[in-house]
């Protein structure tokens, strides 16, 4: 029996660190997957090591080119780059499992030659029958029966038309390793029996190809979700066999990150809108804000600090500081942090990032004019402090780019009965202005509505705000009027007055 971690476990640090991100191209990238990529990227960059991006595409029924393209799109948008792998190449390619069958065959041949794997002909029904006859629970599964088959028995099975699976021999001892997140973990002897690494049809299983790829690519640290933790002892046993066969010289270190929860105590479902990376982007997350929030799902830079830059994340991140307890995805907190990062953008960058969202809302066309871009640059500072998501841009600024204003129904119906008079007084005051700038506009409207009509500011400016923006809530009123210009502003005041008077 052994209860100590294998001394052949890597001690790699610094530039020798090699981690990998190895998703399957199925479905849309979700936030849990991206957090895994982020933590691997952060760990590699913190230590000055390498990140490998490998694709596990051996499930032809589920894998798709569309999903692969989405993975590339997601990582590119987020700025998570990689040093080796698909699209960039490297010394250990190919980096798609579907292109590595010859590699797996060669490794299998080495394991067979060393007597570390064996042919298994037992069917599920035969295993169940033997377990029942021997007083073993069916849940215990395979009983290592085929380990000692003679050549004659194997020949007889083949004569029946049976094709064997290949199983790895599992030592009868405790398997212990030190998890980078959870500390020392021991799987007692007998936790699992000899397991299949190649199906009877010759197709190798994930339990085999994943560690083999890691071994051949020199991966030193395997950082992944805790749902994969039960496979760790099998992988360690396989690594020992790979070392004995001369395929590799060390066992990587493992770290299992906590689950990301949705509502209640349930894992965040891939079908939950919060989990959809592209839906979050569509809503208006900036990459800095989303990555900041995802990094907080199991880790923190300090007890009293939630907002930080990517450079600060890289400088501080270590997988050993990840909390093993489940992390809950909080949409409101994510959006709040995103708003903080929007405010960290410089003015020109902020305006530039608003363009696709204004295009999506219809406020801007496919090729905005220089005049429109100049207007956007001038208007952007008015909403920067108020915005949590870039997707709010259409509602906040769209009124500046159209002369066919649409009113929010509630905004119109909640105006006071004296709104037409207020709008008439506003238009008259503004028409008299020679200089149409923010200070002049404010002074004119204050004199006409507050001093002249005796209105409180909240009431005085409600109907002019709806007139120019179509909404009860808008960017600062006087600045917005300056940006619209005198003619457009007065036209909007008169248009709403006519609508209310009709």
Automatic annotation (TrEMBL):
Classification via InterPro entries: aa-tRNA-synth_I_cd-bd (IPR045462), aa-tRNA-synth_I_codon-bd_sub2 (IPR020751), aa_tRNA-synth_I_cd-bd_sf (IPR008925), Glu-tRNA-ligase_bac/mito (IPR004527), Glu-tRNA-synth_I_codon-bd_sub1 (IPR020752), Glu/Gln-tRNA-synth (IPR000924), Glu/Gln-tRNA-synth_Ib_cat-dom (IPR020058), GluQ/Sye (IPR049940)
Comp. bias regions, Polar residues: 1-14
Record localization: Cytoplasm
Domain Glutamyl/glutaminyl-tRNA synthetase class Ib catalytic positions: 17-333
UniProt key word Nucleotide-binding: yes
CDD domains in the cross-refs: GluRS_core
Positions of short motif 'KMSKS' region: 267-271
A Pfam family this chain is assigned to: Anticodon_2
Function: Catalyzes the attachment of glutamate to tRNA(Glu) in a two-step reaction: glutamate is first activated by ATP to form Glu-AMP and then transferred to the acceptor end of tRNA(Glu).
HAMAP family recorded: Glu_tRNA_synth_type1
Subunit structure: Monomer.
Protein name per Swiss-Prot or TrEMBL: Glutamate--tRNA ligase
Source organism of the structure: Microbacterium nanhaiense
Gene name linked to the record: gltX
């Amino acid at each position: 029996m052994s209860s100590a971690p294998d001394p052949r476990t890597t001690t790699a640090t610094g530039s020798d660190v090699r981690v990998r991100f190895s998703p399957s191209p199925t479905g849309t990238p979700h936030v849990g997957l991206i957090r895994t990529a982020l933590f691997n990227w952060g760990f590699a960059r913190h230590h000055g090591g390498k990140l490998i991006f490998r694709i596990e595409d051996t499930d032809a029924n589920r894998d798709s080119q569309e999903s692969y393209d989405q993975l590339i799109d997601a990582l590119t948008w987020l700025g998570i780059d990689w040093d080796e792998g698909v699209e960039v190449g490297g010394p250990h390619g190919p980096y798609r499992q579907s292109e590595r069958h010859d590699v797996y065959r060669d490794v299998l041949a080495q394991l067979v030659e060393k007597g570390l794997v064996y042919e298994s002909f037992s069917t599920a029904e035969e295993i169940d029958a033997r377990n029942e006859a021997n007083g073993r629970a069916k849940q215990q599964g395979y009983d290592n029966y085929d380990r000692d088959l003679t050549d004659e028995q194997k020949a007889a099975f083949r004569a029946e038309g049976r094709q064997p699976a290949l199983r790895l021999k599992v030592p009868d001892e405790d398997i212990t390793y030190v998890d980078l997140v959870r500390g020392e973990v021991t799987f007692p002897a007998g936790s699992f029996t000899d397991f299949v690494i190649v199906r009877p049809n010759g197709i190798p299983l994930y339990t085999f190809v994943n560690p083999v790829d890691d071994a051949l690519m020199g991966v030193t640290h395997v950082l992944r979700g805790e749902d994969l933790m039960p496979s760790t002892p099998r992988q360690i046993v396989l690594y020992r066999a790979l070392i004995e066969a001369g395929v590799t010289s060390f066992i990587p270190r493992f770290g299992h990150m906590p689950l990301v929860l949705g509502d209640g105590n349930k894992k965040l479902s891939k079908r939950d809108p919060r989990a959809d990376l592209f839906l979050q982007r569509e809503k208006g997350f900036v990459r800095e804000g989303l990555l900041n929030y995802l990094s907080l799902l199991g880790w923190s830079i300090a007890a009293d600090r939630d907002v930080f830059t990517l450079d600060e994340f890289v400088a501080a991140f270590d997988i050993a500081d990840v909390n093993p307890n489940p992390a809950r995805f909080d949409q409101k907190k994510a959006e709040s942090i995103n708003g903080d990062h929007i405010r960290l953008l410089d003015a020109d960058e902020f305006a530039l990032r608003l363009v696709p969202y204004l295009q999506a809302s219809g406020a801007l066309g496919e090729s905005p004019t220089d005049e429109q871009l100049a207007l956007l640059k001038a208007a952007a500072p008015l909403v920067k402090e108020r915005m949590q998501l870039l997707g709010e841009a259409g509602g906040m600024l769209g009124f500046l780019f159209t002369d066919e204003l649409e009113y929010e129904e509630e905004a119109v119906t909640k105006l006071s009965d004296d709104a037409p008079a207020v709008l008439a007084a506003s238009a008259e005051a503004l028409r008299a202005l020679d200089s149409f700038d923010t200070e002049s506009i404010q002074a004119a409207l204050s004199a006409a509505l507050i001093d002249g009509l005796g209105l409180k500011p909240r009431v005085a400016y409600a109907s002019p705000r709806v007139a120019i923006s179509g909404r009860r809530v808008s960017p600062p009123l006087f600045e917005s009027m300056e940006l619209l210009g005198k003619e457009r502003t007065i036209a909007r005041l008169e248009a709403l007055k006519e609508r209310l008077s009709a």
